[in-house]
Amino acid sequence: MAAPAAAAVGGPQPPQPELSASGLALDKAATAAHLKEALSRPDNRAGAEELQALLERVLSAERPLAAAAGGEEAAAAGGGGSPGAAEEEALEWCKCLLAGGGGYDEFCAAVRAYDPAALCGLVWTANFVAYRCRTCGISPCMSLCAECFHQGDHTGHDFNMFRSQAGGACDCGDSNVMRESGFCKRHQIKSSSNIPCVPKDLLMMSEFVLPRFIFCLIQYLREGYNEPAADVPSEKDLNKVLQLLEPQISFLEDLTKMGGAMRSVLTQVLTNQQNYKELTSGLGENACAKKSHEKYLIALKSSGLTYPEDKLVYGMQEPSAGTSTLAVQGFAGATGTLGQVDSSDEEDQDGSQGLGKRKRVKLSSGTKDQSIMDVLKHKSFLEELLFWTIKYEFPQKMVTFLLNMLPDQEYKVAFTKTFVQHYAFIMKTLKKSHESDTMSNRIVHISVQLFSNEELARQVTEECQLLDIMVTVLLYMMESCLIKSELQDEENSLHVVVNCGEALLKNNTYWPLVSDFINILSHQSVAKRFLEDHGLLVTWMNFVSFFQGMNLNKRELNEHVEFESQTYYAAFAAELEACAQPMWGLLSHCKVRETQEYTRNVVRYCLEALQDWFDAINFVDEPAPNQVTFHLPLHRYYAMFLSKAVKCQELDLDSVLPDQEMLMKLMIHPLQIQASLAEIHSNMWVRNGLQIKGQAMTYVQSHFCNSMIDPDIYLLQVCASRLDPDYFISSVFERFKVVDLLTMASQHQNTVLDAEHERSMLEGALTFLVILLSLRLHLGMSDDEILRAEMVAQLCMNDRTHSSLLDLIPENPNPKSGIIPGSYSFESVLSAVADFKAPVFEPGGSMQQGMYTPKAEVWDQEFDPVMVILRTVYRRDVQSAMDRYTAFLKQSGKFPGNPWPPYKKRTPLHPSYKGLMRLLHCKTLHIVLFTLLYKILMDHQNLSEHVLCMVLYLIELGLENSPEEESDEEASVGGPERCHDSWFPGSNLVSNMRHFINYVRVKVPETAPEVKRDSPASTSSDSLGSLQNSGTAQVFSLVAERRKKFQEIINRSSSEADQVVRPKASSKWSAPGSAPPLTTAILEIKESILSLLIKLHHKLSGKQNSYYPPWLDDIEILIQPEIPKYSHGDGITAVERILLKAALQSRMNKRIIEEICRKVTPPVPPKKITAAEKKTLDKEERRQKARERQQKLLAEFASRQKSFMETAMDVDSPETDIPMEITTAEPQVSETVYDCVICGQSGPSSEDRPTGLVVLLQASSVLGQCRDSTEPKKLPITEEEQIYPWDTCAAVHDVRLSLLQRYFKDSSCLLAVSIGWEGGVYVQTCGHTLHIDCHKSYMESLRNDQVLQGFSVDKGEFTCPLCRQFANSVLPCYPGSNVESNLWQRPSNKSIQDLIKDVEDLQGRPGAFPVSISSETNLSKEMESVMKDIKNTTQKKYRDYSKTPGSPDNDFLFMYSVARTNLELELIHRGGNLCSGGASTAGKRSCLNQLFHVLALHMRLYSIDSEYNPWRKLTQLIEEMNSRLGNEEQPEVPILYHDVTSLLLIQILMMPQPLHKDHFTCIVKVLFTLLYTQALAALSVKCSEEDRSAWKHVGALKKNTCEVEKSYEVLLSFVISELSKGKLYHEEGTQECAMGSPIAWSPESIEKYLQDFCLPFMRITSLLQHHLFGEDLSSCQEEEEFSVLASCLGLLPTFYQTEHPFISASCLDWSVPAFDIISQWCFEINSFTEQHTEQGKALLIQDSRWKLPHLLQLPENYNTIFQYYHRKTCSVCTKVPKDPAVCLVCGTFVCLKGLCCKQQSYCECVLHSQNCGAGTGIFLLINASVIIIIRGHRFCLWGSVYLDAHGEEDRDLRRGKPLYICKERYKVLEQQWISHTFDHINKRWGPHYNGL
Q1: Going by C-beta distance under 8 Å and a sequence separation of 6 or more, which residues neighbour residue 765?
Q2: Burial group, residue 1432, by CB count within 10 angstroms (0-12, 13-18, 19+)
Q3: CA distance 735 to 671
Q4: Is 1300's pLDDT higher than 80?
Q5: Inter-axis angle of helices 396-404 and 381-391, to 10 degrees?
Q6: 3-class SS at 565?
Q7: What pLDDT, on the 0 to 100 scale, is given for residue 1173?
C-alpha cells in the first residue's frame, strides 16, 4: 500500500487534513489504477479526457496560492502552512498517477531496472572534490567524480584532485571527452545490448502526466516573475518564488535520477512542440492561462529591449553602415516607449561620444542571420524553461535538473541548440546581474558540458551559427564600455577603447563568454570554419582593436599622482583572456603547411585593422612623449601569426610583410614599451606610484610574457631585419633618450633626460639591443630548446620547487597546445638540466621543500644572462643568478674573481631573419661603440661596468656574425682618402675595427675643457683645411640622420609626403633655452676600436703593456680557437677573447694588433677634473672609507658577540662544578658564580639578591601517552578502526589511584602514588641566569613596549634576553658553596642502622633548613612565587585528586609529582633507558637541582606525622600489629601497594638540603628491599598453583645455606608461604588461565622478570643521583644495565665478582631481619584480601614497563586519510565539518573553528588540546594537509608531513597531486612533541583567541 508513504511525505500539513490525507491516499491509488486501466485500452480517448480533467483540477489547485505568495498579497494570505499543503497534495497525486496505482518506491525501482546508461553524468556543485586526469582526457575540461576515479585505473597517470569552483559533471563513459581506457568498472560495458526493452505500460502514465506537470511549473515561473522596478534588485522576490518551487524541481530532479528510461520520456515531453503549443498558447477559455500568457509576453518584451544600446542602434545610425546584424526587428515599434526608460546613465552623458562609437563599429552586413541579438521564439517546454532559468539568474536547482538530463543524447543536442539560441539573452542578463560571480559560475557549469564535446560543437556551429553568435555577442558586450582613446592625438582621435575602470572589466564579467569561445576554438573543425570566414575575422579584429591601447599611462612630471588606479589588473586580465587566449587557440590549428591560407587571412585583416588604428589615432612618425600603453593585441596577433607562418608553415616571410612605411610605424609602439620599461626601472615614473612598476612587472611575468613581451620583441626583430639598420639603431637611441650622451666630449647637454637617469637609460638601451640581437625564441629555436632555455634561466636565478618551475615556465596558455606542464618533455628536460635536492631540515627547524638545482655543466655551458634578464620580474634576481654563477666558478676552481656574465653561443638564425645581423654591421652602431669605448677609457661620467660589458658583448656578437670573409687586400686599397665626412670606410665590423680615427669635430657647451685647449693645427689656417680632408669624423646627430631616412622612404612610398610630415614632430627635439650655447671643437683622437680595446685591457688589469697576443707564443690558438680558458672570466678575459676573434677573422687585424702591442703604450692622458667632479669624487671616496670602517666595526662586534655567546652558553649550573676528585689537596671554598644576562655582572646568588634560571614551565601529558607496546597505534581510516585510551599510562594510573581511594585512607593513598602523567608540569631552561630584580624591570619594559609580540607579557611570558628562547618564569638558584658538597660527598663509615636513624631524625626536624622560613627574605619570596607559577601552569583537575578539596596532602602529592614528571621525561628524552650514559642531552640545560631545592623547601612545610611516616614501616618491626589495625575506619595503604619511586622522592624531599650522599644511598638500599619484595609478590601471583608449590619447596630446601637473605629462591618461597596465609591465592579456579602464564617459570625467566620490575626505579634513582651529586652515568649494553646501575647506586658491594650470571638478589641489604619485615608487610595484604581478593591481586601486579610515547602512525598515502575524513560527520554536532581536523596524539576527530561544537567560548580544537595534551594539541587539518600546533593560548602552522613526488608540500591541496608521508618530517614532529620544544623551534606563533 502506498498510504504510509504518502502520509509521511505530506509532513508539514496542518493537523486537521491528516485523516483526510491518508484517506485520500487510498483514494488516489484507486483512481490512478482505474485511469491506467482506462488508458491501456486501444480506444483511450475517454481515459485521456478524464485524466486531463483530473490534472487540471489537481495542478491548478495550488496556483492561486503560489501567485499570492509570489505577489504582493503574500503577507495577506493567512495560514502559512496552507500553500505548502496544497503543493504537497499535488505532488502526491502526480506520484500516484505515475505509479499507476502501485507504490511509488516500487515504481522507481522498476524504472531503474531499465537503465541503459553507459554514462555517469553525476552533476556536482561548487566545492565538490573531483578529479582530472590529463592522461585520459581528450578535452582539457574533463573531470571525474571520486567514485569513478577510484574505480578506474589511473596508476602512473598525470592526475590531480581539485575543488570544483563552478560545479561540473562526471564524464566517465563519454568517449567524446575522455579515452575509454580511463572509464571506471561501472561504465566500461556498453550495456545497451543486455538491457531489456521497456514495457509500454510502465511509463505510459508518465507520458500523460509530465507535460501538465512541467507546464504547471512554467506557469508558476511566469506568475512569480515581476520586472525589477526601476533597477531595484528584486532578488528577494525571485528567491521567494524559487523556494516555493523547491519541491517541484526536486521531484523532477529525482525523476532524472531514475535512469535512461525515464530520461527519454522527459526528453520527449520537453522537446515536443505540439504539446507546448496546445498548452501554452493562452487561447483557451481558461482565464488563468490567458493571464499567464500575458505575463510571459511582457517578460519577453522587456528582455528584448532592456538593452540600453538599442535606441542608439536605431536612432543614430545611417542606413549605410550595415545595420543588419545589430538591427533588432522584433519589437521595433516599442522602442520609442521602452527604450528611453531603460537607457542607462553613461549613455546620456555624451551623445557625440555615442556617435563616435557607432561610427567605429564595422559589423559585416548582409550574409548573417539578422536576429542574433533580438527576439526569442519559444517552440518547446525546454526553450521556455531555459528562458526562465536565465531570467531567474540560473537557480542552482534548475541548473542541476537541466544538467542531469544530459546523458540523454537527443536531449543533449536539443538543449545545446536552445542554449545557443538564448546566448545573447544570457549575456544581457549577466551584464545586469548583481550577483555576476555566482551567475558566471552557473553559466560555465552548463556551457562547459556542452562545448567541450567536439562533435556537438561542430554540429551547432553548422546548424545554429554558433561562431557568429558568439563573436557578435562578445562585440556587443564590450561596446557598452567604450571610451575615446587618448593615445597620440587626444583631440582628433577617432579610436575607441574599452574603459578598464568599468565593472564589466574590473569584475571579469565577460569571463564566461570568453571562456566558451576559447573552449569551442580548441576544436579543430570549429577553428577552421572561423579562420575561413572573412567576415568573422574582420569582426574579430574589430573586437581586438577595442583593447588596442587601453589603460594608457601618462607620466606625471610634477607631483605624485593622488590616487593610484588599480585598473591595470583588469587590463592585463582582459588582454590575456579576451585576446591572447583565443589567439593561442587559433594558432594551435595553424601547425602545418596546408594551413597557410588561414595565416594569410589573419595577417591580412590584422594589418588592415592596424592601418585603421594608425589612421584613427592620427599617427605619423613620432610617438607622443611621456605616455605608454602596454596593450597592443593587434601587434601581437600579427607577430604570432608571422612567427607561426615561418616556423611551421614554411611561408615566405616577405610575402606577408607590409611595405617599409608600415614596418616603421609597426615598430614604434613596441619600441616605446621597451624604452618605457627602462624609464620605469630608472625611477622616472616614480610619481605615477607603485602601480606603474606593477605593470612593468606583469608585462614580463611568466603567465603573460609569451603573450606580451615575447611577441613585441619578435616584431621588433622582424622590423629590424627588414628596415635600414642605421635608421633602426638611431631610433633605438632616440627612444631611450640617450642620443646626446653619445659624444666624444666630456660634457654634453641632454635636452630630454636628467643627468641622474642617463646611466641607467644607456644601460637599458644597450641591454635592449643585446636582447634583440641574441634572443632566438621565435627565430629558429625548437620547442624543446626553448623549454630548456626557459628552465635553465629560472633555475639559475634560484633553486626551484617542481611546482614553482611549472608555474614560472611560460607555457602556451591554450591547454591544447601540446606542451602541457608536467608532460613528458618537461620532465625529461628537467632531469637533463637539474639535480633534485631532497627535502632537508635545518637545525633551526625550518623545513625545506624538495628543490631542483642546476647541474654543474649547465652553469658551465648553458647559463645565459640574456635570457635571465629577459625573464626576471625583480631586478634582484639577475644579481642572484650572477652571485650563484660566481659561487659555482669559485667552487669548481674555474675563476676566482668576480666574473662577468658569460658570452653564450646562439642557435643559428632561421634564414628568413638573416637581415637582423645587419644591425651589427652598420656604421651608426660602430660609431656608438667607438664613442662609448673612448668615453670609458677617458673615464667620462655616467658610464658603468655594465655599459662596458654590453658594448663588448655587442662587439663580440658582431664578430661572431660577420658577413662572408672580406679579402684583406681589397679593403686596404682606397684607404681613408675615400671617405671625407664619415667615420668608417665600410659597414663591416671586422674591417672597421682597425680603422684609425684621427680627429673628431664635436659640439660642446662653451664651458667644456675641450674648448680651452688649442686646436692642434692652429698655426696656419690652411692646415685646418687639409685636416678637413683627412677625414675629421663628425659626431653627427643620429636624429637628423633618422629623419632623413624616414623622409626618403616616405617619398618613395607615397607622393603626398608633404601632407604627412608635420613640422611639429621635428621641433620637439630643440634644446630648451636655458642650456648654455654650444660651440664646435675638434678633438684629436688617433685611435681605432682595436687600439681602444688593448688600452682598455691595460686599464682593467692596472698594468702597462699587460696585453700580449697569445698566438705569438702558441700558433695553435689560431687553428682551434675554442679555448675553455676564455669562457669564464671578467672584463680582461672578455677583451682577450674579442681580440683573439678579431685576429682570427682577418690577417690585417692580426697584424695591426701586433703592431699596437709593439709600440710601448703611451700613458693615458691625465684627466682634467673640474671642481664639481672633484667634489663628487671626494664624496665617493669618503663614502667608501665610511663603508670600510663600518664593516670593520661590524666584524669586531660579531666576534665579540660570538665569544660572549660561547661563554654565556657555558654557564655552569652548580652540579657540574662539583669536583669529582674527592682527594683534592685542600677543599676550595668558592661559591657558584652566575652571570646575569641583563646587567652583565657576575656573582653568587644571595638571599637578598637571588639569581634565577630562565625557565619555561609547561603542562605536559606526554608521559600519559606511553603504552606498553612498542608499535605506535595507527590513525583510524575506516569506521572499524577505533582507538581506545584505556591502555595508556595515564589511564592505568588513574584506575589504580581510584581503586586505592575506594578502600584506603585518603591521605595515605595520596602518598602511595604519583600524579602528573597527564597535565604534569615540565620545567626546562635555556641555561641562562639573571638577577630576579633585573628580570622584573625587564618585564616592565616589555609590558610598556607596544610592539606586538608573539607572547603575552601579562601571563609572565618573555623571551630570554640573550638567546631569545621562549620562557615564562624564573627559578631561583639556591645559594650554596662547593665546599659543602665536597664534605657531603665524603663517605662516612656509619653502619646502615645508624644511617637509618639519622634519616628518621632529619626528617622529623622541621627547622633544619639552612634558611629559616620565618625570616622573609627575597629568596624565599621568590621561591614561593615560582611555586605558585608551577601550580598555575596546569589545570586544577590535574592537581586535585583528594576527596577533601584543598587538603594539604594534595599539595604534597603535587609537589613530589613535579619532580617525578621531570625525571621521567628526562628518561624518555634519553630513549627510555640509561644505556647511553654521559651527561643528559640537556646537560647544561637541566634545572632539576634548582627545582629540587624549591620543592624541598615547600615539602618541608608539611611534616608527616612520624606515626604515619612510611620510613618507619620500612625500617622497623612494629610489635602489636593486630591491635592497631582493628580500630581504624579505613586502613592505610599496605606498604607493598606503595609506588616505590614516589616513596623515594618523598623521603629525599623531606630531608634537609643539600643531602648527604650516605643518607641518599641508605634510603635507596631500604627502598630496594621493598621493591624486591613487591617484585616477588607480583611474580607469585602470576605463577600457577603448581609453580608456586614447586618454588615454595625449592626455597625451603635452600633455607639452610649461607646468605639466605640474598637468595631469591628462599625469599620467593617465604613470600609465597606468607601470602598463602591470606586469601590472595584463593578462588582462582576460574581465573587461573587468565592470570597464570602458560609457560613454566625457569630461573632465568624469573631473574629477568625481577630485573625488569626493578629497572624503572633504578633508572629514576640513578638520574636523581646524577643531578644531586653530579655523578656521571656510565654507558653500557642493555643486558648489563641493571648491574651497572646497581653498582652506581652503591647497592652492590664493591668486591662483587661478575663472572657467574648476575643475580639481582645480591643487591639486597636488609636493615632488619628479612623474614620478619616481609611477614609484617605480607600481613597487611592478607588482612586486606580477606574481603577483596580480586582488587588485592590487581593492585599487586604493577606493570611498570612502559614503552616510549609515540604519535599515531599515519598511512603512506594522504588520499586514504582525505577520503575517509573529509566527508566524515563530527560525533558531537553530527554535521560534516567545514574544516575537519584530527588529533595526531589520540585520533579524535574535531571541527576546526566550528561554532557548532563551541563550549563556553572555547572552540573544539582548543578544548581538545586542553583535555588531551594539557594545553598542547597537534592537529592534522584534513582539507589543507598541514599540521597545526596549539600551545596554550597560541598556535602555529607547523607545516606538512605529506609531500608529493617532488618533495613539496601542497598546502590547502591546491595542486591536488598525490601526497606521501615524509617519515623524517614526522619523526621531527614527534621529537619536538616529546622534547617539548615546539615553543623554541617554531617561530611564527599567533594568538588563537580560543577560536580554533
Answers
A1: 675, 678, 732, 733, 736, 738
A2: middle
A3: 7
A4: yes
A5: 150
A6: coil
A7: 54
